[in-house]
Amino acid sequence: MDCINAKFVSQKISKTRWRPVSSASLHQPDIFATGSWDNEDNKVSIWSIGEHGVSNMDDEFEGDPQLLCEYKHNGDVLDLQFLDQERIATASSTGAVTIFRHHQNSQTLSVAQLWDRAHHYPCDDAPCTGLVCNSPEIVTIGEDGRINLFRADHKGILRTIENADSSTIHAVTFLRTTEVLTVNSFGQLKLWDFRQQSNEPSQILSLTGNRVPLHCVDRHPNQQHIVATGGQDGMLCLWDVRQGTMPLSMMEAHSAEMWEVHFHPSNTDHLFTCSEDGSLLHWESSTSSSVPSFLQGGRNTSAMSRSTVAPGDGNQSLTSGWLSGDSSKGHLETTHMLPSQTLSVNSLDVLDQCLVCGTDGEAIYINRESSDEIESRDCGCTDQAGARRCEEEPGCTN
Amino acid sequence: MEEVDVEPTTTPIPGIDFTQKHLGFVWGPGDILVYETKYGATGAASVDQGCPFVHVVRKDEDIYSPILRKLFNESHHIFVGLQKIKEDVPSKNKKSQFVSISKNYRSVIRACMEELQQVAVSTRDATLATQYGNQVSILLAVELIWNLCEVLFIEAAPAGALQLHLLDWVRLHKADVDEKAREVLQSESPAEHPAYWDVAISYVLQGRTDEARQVLVKQASLQPAARLMFKLLDSLLMKMPVYNPGGNQTLTEFDVKWRHWREECDRCLQDNSFASNRHLEAICKILVGDEDTLLEYKELLGTWYHFLVTRLLYSHPTVKPTELHYYAQSSMDMFLETRSGPEPLDSILLAAFEFDIHQVIKDCSIALNNWWFVAHLTDLLDHCKLLQSHNLHFGSNLREFLLLEYGAGLFTHHSLWQLAVGYFDHCPEFGRVYLELQIERVPLDSERKALKVLRICEERQMAEQVRSICKIMAKRALRNDRLGSALSWSIRAKDAAFATLISERFLQDYCTPAPSYREFHKLYGDKRFVEAATLLLSLMTAKIAPQSFWMTLLTDALPLLEQKQVIFSADQTYELMHCLEELTAGKTIPNTDHPMQDEDVEVTKVELLRLALARNLAQAIVKEGTVDG
């Protein structure tokens, strides 16, 4: 039985991220960071759901997040990501990019690096809308249409692609170490290769005739050419960046903007989406019979064979349930993970058996699965290329 | 005009001496802006430099408390849930739903209160501690009133059950007994503890006979001589009848049983059974409802309403709701005789006991410094159909008036404005207007925020606000030379005129979405005519280029059509013709805005194009026929 634990935190939460768990430890994630937005004073905060917390109250419900430390953040936190165990990079609505250091001995936060006006207009601030870290590199995007490449230990900007987009870039993810993918308010996906000197994208994908803005993107953890995007209309799309310029499948997910989409990092048959419509969905694709139940909620489970709209290319080299254009084979189950709620779920993060999300209703929700519900770690990769990568993937049983 | 209910309080503003200078002010949605004028007390304008500040005076301070924000957020959720309760649910099920919603509201208040209590204790700042302490006592009062309203109005318990509910109410709000009891029972020798009898009697006063007996046993074992006396009291306490609303027993049967028990207690007093122990005798006097004895324990009772409930328990356990007000008034008079008079809380509770809901709401509105409580309570009572007949001299009705006031307060807050939307949504008469006026004041700091505000407007079909937000964002993007963003905002606004304007700027600037057009010219320059023709056509058919640009593209096609060899195939020519017809179809009525010369040029261009297209089509058909044949 899963339990959802809500905590009201008196600030609208724009981002929630688990601190990465070191591969050596078998521990479940127990520390997460949040960023706030639309408050007079915004903050970056570190929370603990483990014994780290200063649990001076013995009647405190176990697992209730305890605030470890917080630090004032100039502007809305528009994105936040752990660079490593100690450092957190944030994107601000002022256009600044900041690296915070979490000192675990003293439980304090400090600013380790600040790039003021990393994104800007000639005479105005331009919000930095997102960032992605691949330590030590950080790629940031903004309303100014720039793409910046930073190194955490380097004061200057390594590379800027000016006017990479004439519309707002909403999200970015790494495809490979030198290649990032951005999504914009024109509904396009653009691939950028930092090895090339040109300031043009190496590839553009988009839904034809449909300029619905895209707000989020996540790469499949094992299959680097598979990405999921979420749009303003709440539609979930899966793309194969190697083939075609059209999505492999489209699924109606939410009734308003999808703010984030995340594949489960180790159990890739599971995907999570959250939206302005106040819902958090857990998607489970079951192609193999022995799919371990993960984060299975008891609520409103609706089994549905989503008829997926696939383009004509029948060359399906993948058997992953996400991509099967044939609805008779692809069986998707969606579960609402939050009790009915009215205000936007802005962010979610999932790691191992733990999920955290934050809302405009000023609440953080934590969902922790009891450990016996996961039998094996399945990375979900079945094709040749995937299997090769699996060897490098610790913990994958394939 | 109605008289004022209470004299308004004076708020001194630091730095302004109103005896010297006149003040000016402006109303705002939640704040008042106050400034010093140059006019003095005599009315004459003074020459000296006035105070250069504008002061913001705020009525509702609570909205800025970080802990109370949790109350606002959590209760918003309950409120929205309550509005969704369907009309067609049978009224019996509805009542239990309303009671559980009422309990949810109260548990949120309690959670908030506990947190405030914790920070009040842990803070080192004395002023902050006092402030938190004040908030705790306000929340305590709020919860006390809410709970009583729940018992009397929502639960609307009948005689018998009513007494049990009131007892629960008093027990919940006089929980310090348990704390004291723990202290006594954990001490080395409980029976000799100075608070021992206070605890025993407090338990009796709350009708908690089992606990009272457990405490009394301690004393009994110390006094073997008085063993029989203790045993007698113990059996009286044990035998005290308690009404069970769910059981088989009727209220009359219970009443008979209770009267027998009371006679037995009375006999023990007549017999002087407890004469040798004043404590035991006092307990027995309480059991028969002796008012003088009860009043001797004023300190333990603490409040007149505790006195009322204890008095009812031992004198009128089957009290009817309609009789309550009589006992309440007399209990208050008896209890408060020495004091100056009732406090606001006393009057509110008394009004509740009199079932005067409107008085309760009115007094609460005056006494409390925020609208949260009255707005939510009134809404709940309105759902219970308890407020139908009351109309205000202004606005729509009491419920809506209070919700709008509360919502408007939220809207002035930097972050809580989103919550207000949910309240305005459920104000049928003026909610929409409030939302329309307020939503335009939300500052749009980032596109993310603009998208959220826009979503609120779109979901409610607020076309004008949608247009205005998109226009603001599009203009801002245009100012910063972000043509793509500007275009997507104007598309979202369905603002065709503006979108066209931006598209044209795009093409003028030869910006990113027009590389294909640049490519066309490159291909044409390289004399790769067939490729150029295909690209040109696709710019129109795939709707890559805006229609306003089609005439330029078609004109660009002219030299290709005039080439010696046939470049556009028959099918492509048909498509070009189709594009031309589509373009000219809407322009049959001469546009009076344009000078006639322009019109003539256009007409000539179209004629030329038609001619060239027809000629090309003929050639293409011949050519294609020849090849195939």
Automatic annotation (TrEMBL), chain A:
WD repeat residue intervals: 207-249, 251-293
Region (Disordered): 293-326
Compositionally biased tracts (Polar residues): 298-326
Cellular component terms (Gene Ontology): nuclear pore outer ring
Record's subcellular location: Nucleus
Keywords recorded for this protein, A-Z: Nucleus, Repeat, WD repeat
Protein name stated in the entry: Nucleoporin Nup43
Automatic annotation (TrEMBL), chain B:
GO molecular function: structural constituent of nuclear pore
Subcellular location: Nucleus, Nuclear pore complex
InterPro entries named in the record: Nucleoporin_Nup85
Gene Ontology CC entries for this record: nuclear membrane; nuclear pore outer ring
Chief place of localization: nucleus
GO biological process: mRNA export from nucleus; positive regulation of DNA-templated transcription; protein import into nucleus
Pfam families xrefs: Nucleopor_Nup85
Keyword vocabulary terms for this entry: Membrane, mRNA transport, Nuclear pore complex, Nucleus, Protein transport, Translocation, Transport
Function in brief: Functions as a component of the nuclear pore complex (NPC).
Annotated family: Belongs to the nucleoporin Nup85 family.
Subunit structure, as described in the record: Component of the nuclear pore complex (NPC).
UniProt-recorded name of the protein: Nuclear pore complex protein Nup85
Originating species: Conger conger
